[in-house]
Design goal:
- This protein is of the alpha/beta class and 530 residues long.
- The protein contains 19 helices and 19 strands.
- The strands form 4 sheets. Strands 10-11-14-15-16-17-18-19 form an 8-stranded parallel beta barrel, surrounded by 5 helices.
- α4 packs parallel to α6 (238-250).
- The relative contact order is 0.11.
- The structure holds acetamide and zinc ion.
């Protein structure tokens, strides 16, 4: 009897330890080929993680893997250059694939191997291994034999964050980047200026951030007419931005900065009222919505100003992609402004929308000369697109479809699926703190970024999907995280996993494991889903 019991105990223990590891992580890998049932590789504390010497990115990958396993599971592994065949985990390059982010994880009697097509591919594999191991490692981890072959469906996997309406500290921006890395996202769209605060330091115009970042008061709730009468400010120095860029780069995340123009500029107009059609004065806006006060398109000083801003922006952000905004820019001031009207006459333009295209074309030329490509919200279609522009489709998918048909590249972020400032549960407490409509987890998950209307050829112009997190009603990091999680999980499978493999019910099972990690790391998330 004792023997039977102890046998049962051994079986139960091994089932328990196998149950800890699951390769079905979020986003779900493309192919998971299990080995023979019951065969496991035992990873022990203090195991070596080998990486090729003289490759700083691979060394960084090894260090990050060690950091992740330690913080997630209290498990210690030791990065070692060229540790050779004795290492329990080996990171290497040389996987043959057209996709630079492809990786293969093999677990066999020889240990755990993560091989990537590039260093970036290895990093994506590191994330998968870390999530597979989870939060409860103990003294050893028993990894079932497996071969995972994986690569993302879309090359562009974006997450946006508005740090103008509310300012978020540098440490939280890094946490945001950590969350993106965990989910295999690779483009951080950083909305850094707006009517309610200019939050990017421009050294040649220091007052822009010093004065333009501070609003005297903030409206309470949804434009109630009541205010808090407390100054609110904060901006990012260029040194801080560089630090964030470097932090993201280690995690193979590109940062796309956005200076929104010609609308959403009251932060700047407050400091330089001569750049507005009426000459001001303008306040850093204390309310939410769409301001009619925009940059004057007929004043040559406007373009000079923008070029100075973008010069410094490009110095700080190496991203090939630069977002110039372009959304929600009313044209009433332009209609009444002698300078704008004279500019239209000079250029032979018949509609004010074409003035916006004129500015975009000038910036496109200027930034192209610096090797950059511009992105704009879909309103930039109104007056005609400049040559290389990428369209960010947010007012549904219509703009994206139109742009793809014009052979312009497209990022898909339609409000109904991708606006995660919208509420996620049908209850009053959620609605109170959210702008707009209802975007539950299941809705985000159901997005198909390639519209059925597009031909196969046109579909190639869809770079990938993105979620947007605006912060009019989100003032604190924990709240931002709650809006992000778990809808970030949903978009990550839309971005990464082949659509044939998506299944919402199976996804929610995977999500339960992810929540354990969120609990462990102190990440706030919405624990219910609809
Ligand atoms: C936007 O949501 N105004 C792009
Ligand atoms: Zn004007």
């Amino acid at each position: 009897m004792r023997k039977v019991l102890s046998l049962l105990f051994v079986v139960a223990m091994s089932v328990a330890s196998w149950a800890q590891v699951s390769y079905e992580v979020i986003p779900l890998p493309r192919s998971i080929e299990p080995g023979k049932r019951g065969e496991v590789f035992t990873l022990r504390q203090n195991a070596a993680v080998a990486y090729p010497a003289d490759n700083e990115q691979m060394a960084s990958n090894a260090r990050l893997l060690a950091e992740y396993l330690h913080q997630d599971a209290g498990f210690v592994v030791e990065p070692k250059a060229d540790a050779g065949k004795t290492a329990a985990i080996t990171l290497s390059l040389g996987l043959k694939s057209d996709n630079p982010e492809a990786y293969r994880i093999t677990v066999s009697k020889r240990g755990v191997a993560i091989q990537g097509a590039t260093e970036e591919g290895v990093f994506r594999g590191v994330q998968t291994l870390r999530k597979a191991i989870g939060t409860e490692a103990g003294e050893q981890v028993e990894l079932p034999y497996v071969t995972i072959d994986d690569q993302p469906r879309f090359g562009y996997r974006g997450v946006h964050f508005d740090t103008s309406r509310h300012f978020f500290p540098v440490d939280f921006i890094k946490t945001y980047i950590d969350l993106m890395a965990l989910h295999g996202c690779n483009q951080f769209h950083w909305h850094i200026t707006d009517d309610q605060g200019w939050r990017f330091e421009v050294k040649s115009m220091p007052e822009l951030a010093i004065k333009g970042s501070v609003r005297e008061k903030t409206v309470l709730g949804c434009n109630t007419g009541l205010y808090d009468y407390r100054p609110y400010g904060g901006y990012y120095t260029q040194d801080e931005c560089r630090e964030i860029v470097a932090y993201a780069a280690k995690r193979f995340i590109n940062i796309i900065p956005e200076i929104d123009l010609p609308g959403h500029m009251q932060g700047a107009l407050h400091v330089y009222p001569e750049l507005g059609c009426t000459g001001g004065p303008y306040e850093v806006w204390p309310i939410w919505g769409i301001s009619e006060d925009v940059l004057c398109a007929g004043n040559p000083a406007t373009l000079d100003f923008l070029k100075r801003v973008y010069d410094e922006l490009c110095d700080v952000f190496p991203s090939k992609l630069i977002n110039i905004g372009g959304d929600e820019s009313p044209r009433v001031r332009w209609q009444q402004c002698p300078k704008c009207q004279a500019k239209m006459k000079e250029l032979g333009l018949t509609r004010e929308a074409q003035l916006q295209t004129y500015i975009n074309k000038e910036l496109d030329k200027y930034l192209s000369a610096r090797g950059r490509t511009i992105i704009g919200w879909d309103e930039i279609l109104d007056g005609g697109l400049s040559e290389n522009t990428i369209v960010l489709s947010w007012r549904g998918t219509k703009g994206g479809i139109e742009a793809a048909r014009q052979h312009h590249r497209v990022i898909m972020a339609p409000t109904d699926y991708c606006y995660i400032d919208y509420y996620q549960l049908r209850r009053d407490s959620e609605r109170l703190y959210a702008i707009g409509g209802y975007v539950p987890l299941s809705k985000v998950y159901s997005l198909e970024p390639i519209p059925a209307e597009l031909s196969e050829e046109e579909s190639k112009y869809i770079l990938g999907p993105q979620v947007n997190l605006w912060t009019e009603y989100i003032a604190f990091p924990d709240h931002a995280m709650y809006m992000l999680l778990p809808r970030l999980d949903a978009i990550s499978e839309v971005q990464w996993t082949p659509k044939e493999q998506k299944n919402f019910d199976a996804f929610t099972v995977r999500l339960e494991r992810m929540e354990k990690l969120y609990d462990k790391l102190g990440y706030k998330y919405c624990a219910k889903w609809e």
